[in-house]
Design goal:
This protein is of the alpha+beta class and 608 residues long. It is built from 22 helices and 10 strands. The two termini are 38 Å apart. It binds a DNA duplex (16 and 16 nucleotides) through helix 1, helix 10, helix 11, helix 12 and strand 4. Keywords: Coiled coil, DNA-binding, Nucleus, Transcription, Transcription regulation.
DNA sequence: CGTCTTTGACCCGCGC
DNA sequence: GCGCGGGTCAAAGACG
């Protein structure tokens, strides 16, 4: 395992890039911190073992980043006034967050301008409280006054007043931020609750509940596909429960779907049919057959069950349309593979038609039987672009680094699934979703669900607003959805269709600040795990196009809207910026584990 | 020695 | 029925 994990991420190469993990940052941008490279031989995936992701993350977080040049140690906090020269030492302490960028700048300027008279300048700026200041000034004030004259006193008092104001403002902002955060969480929870409720209703109403279907018994099994992964938050568990019901139904009721549904506990369980079964008998392969292969999963009507866990069997027709969504990430990278926080094992490589570059197949190895697969291939047109396509849901908890990808792709997948559902019913309504996800985007997205595998492509090659939703060129029916009136031209594929800055910036920034993570608090519930990949909350079956579908749309749209709401994010970004004092402040990384969410996401915003 | 990567072969579905 | 292409398997080799 030791090597394996390390090697996994790497694939065969040594320089994978990670867009979301702290490490990625290190690998790509030559971390200032020596620690960043500690990842071991492969830098990439986080160290080389399962904990790697988290460990690397921790490392990143733990290692106090060297104070960014921008922030000369800003010690505006009243408590620290005495330590003028020491300010930078505590640069990253919580207290310092209170300082506003303004204060930082002021101080910095003085420190530079004053040159050797550092003490003077610093004192003036840093001393917020009279007492502290006086203390420090005792040793220096005389010189100051001599040199500076009377003006220093007035300036000092002025600055003190300003600083106090700023502190107050910071406090207010923090309060606002916390309030917004709490509200957001509450809303999110409410949303999830609604979704669950809806799912339950559908399960009950939806038509055939096979006799053996017993809610109680559902727990252990998991839906490998789009279904929620057990590992996720409590919410996930609940959802999975709901799903599991459908799952059992499927197994007992509908034979054909076997491959799609896999019991984690019963890796070797027999439910599989056909020759494939033999192959899949190996623990790893078991889940594979059912979930990944388009040929299998998709072509079997039943396979759709995986897509819409909560659906009833009768909805097979509708489910058929609910094909597995794939989330493809396009990013420029010289590395053979991007590190997304998960551990992967390469199980195959093949030359794909129309592309001189081989396509590599990976499966998630973070947990036994994890159904998530991904394909990595370079773009034929531009080989600097690495295309990573994810499919399936993780059946295990994801490290923060992976959550970032999961969160990002979730929204995309949700939109796609919603669109596909609609399209299946002949009700294509991408606009709603697209707008929900990309309210502020001036770009457009192409949505198409007719293809065997609806695919959402997140194009990170056009940073900072790089996201693109697109359907595979090969896919037939395509819908181009103009956003915000902006219309970028033409081809649905890799053209300039860009998604909202939210996504784009988030990803882009993450690519830069590997340490930035979308906090699970923010995105987690939404994505559940998507392994970065698929939208977990199983959208209600398209069986009830108008209602369930609309509901699914609404949910996903609302979810996306919340996370993508420019106002929300802008406010948070502003608050964080003021607190942190800089977009590039490594401090942003700190929150990833803590899940105080907002900062992470915001960090990405401020990044630009 | 165990694990992972490589890679040819195989399976499957689809189109002709 | 045949060929093609996508996806996966599994033996052999590589690696630490």
């Amino acid at each position: 395992m030791d090597r394996g994990w390390g090697a996994l991420a790497l694939g065969s190469d040594r320089n994978p890039i990670s867009f979301f993990s702290p490490k990625s940052f290190t690998s790509r941008f030559k971390p200032v911190n020596s620690n960043a490279n500690s990842a071991g031989r492969d830098l990439m995936v986080g160290g080389g073992d399962r904990s790697s992701s988290s460990s690397s993350f921790r490392m990143f977080q733990a290692a106090p980043p060297s104070p960014p040049p921008d922030h000369g140690g800003d010690n505006n906090d009243n408590d620290n006034d005495n330590r003028v020269a020491v300010d930078e030492v505590d640069f990253f302490s919580d207290r310092h967050q209170k300082t506003t960028t303004n204060s930082v700048n002021i101080k910095k300027e003085n420190s530079h301008e004053e040159a050797l008279n550092v003490n003077i300048g610093l004192h003036l700026l840093t001393a917020n409280t009279g007492s502290d200041q006086s203390t420090v000034d005792d040793g220096v004030s005389s010189d100051m006054e001599d040199k500076r004259g009377k003006t220093s006193t007035t300036e000092l008092s002025q600055l003190q007043v300003d600083l106090q104001k700023m502190n107050l403002e910071n406090q207010k902002l923090k309060e606002m931020l916390s309030q917004v955060t709490s509200n957001y969480h509450a809303l999110q929870m409410h949303l999830v609750a609604l979704m669950q409720h809806q799912q339950q209703n559908q399960i009950v109403e939806g038509g055939k509940l096979s006799d053996d279907k017993k809610p109680e018994s559902m727990v252990p099994r998991q839906f490998l596909d789009l279904g929620p992964s057990a590992a996720a938050a409590e919410i996930d568990h609940e959802v999975s429960n709901n799903i599991s019901s459908s799952e059992e139904r499927t197994q007992s009721g509908t034979p054909p779907n076997k491959t799609d549904i896999v019991s984690l506990d019963q890796d070797n369980s027999s439910i599989r049919d056909g020759k494939r079964i033999n192959r899949e008998e190996s623990p790893e392969s078991e889940t594979q057959g059912g979930n990944w292969g388009p040929n299998k999963a998709q072509k079997l009507n039943n396979s759709t069950a995986a897509v819409a866990p909560a659906k009833s069997i009768d909805q097979s027709s509708a489910e058929a349309t609910m094909r597995k969504a794939r989330v493809s990430v396009r990013a420029r990278s010289e590395a053979p593979m991007i590190t997304d926080g998960c551990q992967w094992r390469k199980y195959g490589q093949k030359m794909a038609k129309g592309n001189p570059c081989p396509r590599a197949y990976y499966r998630c190895t973070m947990a036994v039987g994890c159904p998530v697969r991904k394909q990595v291939q370079r773009c034929a047109d531009d080989r600097t672009i690495l295309i990573t396509t994810y499919e399936g849901n993780h059946n295990h908890p994801l490290p923060p680094a992976a959550m970032a990808m999961a969160s990002t792709t979730t929204a995309a997948a949700s939109m796609l699934l919603s669109g596909s559902m609609s399209s299946a019913d002949g009700i294509m309504n991408p606009n709603l979703l697209a707008r929900a996800i990309l309210p502020c985007s001036s770009s457009m997205a192409t949505i198409s669900a007719s293809a065997p595998f609806p695919t959402v492509t997140l194009d990170l090659t056009h940073s900072p607003n790089p996201l693109q939703f697109q359907q595979r060129p090969s896919q037939q029916t395509q819908f181009q959805v103009p956003f915000g009136g902006g219309v970028s031209g033409g081809s649905n594929v890799s053209t300039s269709q860009q998604l909202p800055q939210i996504f784009g910036q988030t990803l882009y920034n993450q690519s830069k600040f590997s340490g930035l993570q979308l906090s699970q608090d923010i995105m987690g519930p939404i994505s559940h795990q998507l392994g970065g990949h698929q939208f977990t909350p199983p959208p209600p079956p398209s069986l009830h196009p108008p209602q369930s579908s609309s509901f699914a749309d609404t949910v996903s749209a609302a979810t996306a809207a919340i996370t993508a709401d420019p106002n929300f994010t802008a406010a948070l970004a502003a608050a964080i910026t003021s607190i942190i004092g800089g977009a590039n402040n490594p401090y942003n990384n700190n929150n990833s584990n803590n899940t105080t969410n907002t900062s992470n996401k915001i960090g990405s915003f401020s990044g630009n």
